[in-house]
Amino acid sequence: MEDARIVELYFLRDEAALAETKKKYGRYLQKISYNILGDVRDCEEALSDVCLGAWNSIPPNAPKDLKSYLSKLARRVSIDALRRRERKKRASEFTVSLGELCDCLPDSATPENECDLRLLCEVIESWLSGLNEQQRTVFILRYFYAEPIAEISKKLGFGKEKTKSMLFRLRESLRSRLEKEEFI
Description:
Elements: H1 3-11, H2 16-37, H3 40-57, H4 66-86, H5 93-101, H6 114-129, H7 133-143, H8 149-156, H9 160-180
Helix pairs in contact: 1-2, 2-3, 2-4, 3-4, 7-9, 8-9
């Protein structure tokens, strides 16, 4: 079923929208959740939460790109679940990937400081747009989708060492850009 029709079903408050969402994007959304949570049962619960989130937010939102909209919901739901689980001290690949970025992100970025966060986002977006497609893909797979290094290497046909090296250079480049912009 086409995305526009699925969104229309949400607007009609037809529960078939949930079934169609799971049918078309279920495996994709569970993969995003699994990369963050690392647990199949948690991913199944996250998928249900994503569908509920879509149900509650469409309408009033009418996403132009349903897949991207749902992937952001999946990421947000999974990160929230990870935070709850972290209180119980169970780590995941997402925690590891975020730990890699800690050295290049400023400590002062807090939700209370919305203006600085907006500026930081603009600098990171600008930095990302300056990368070549291969570098951008590796960075986004690792730090947005929380893909393990071995999977990124396999997808892109690289050796693990090349991927690790590329990620290291990208983090250093990001840190340098953030220092230049005085975020660090």
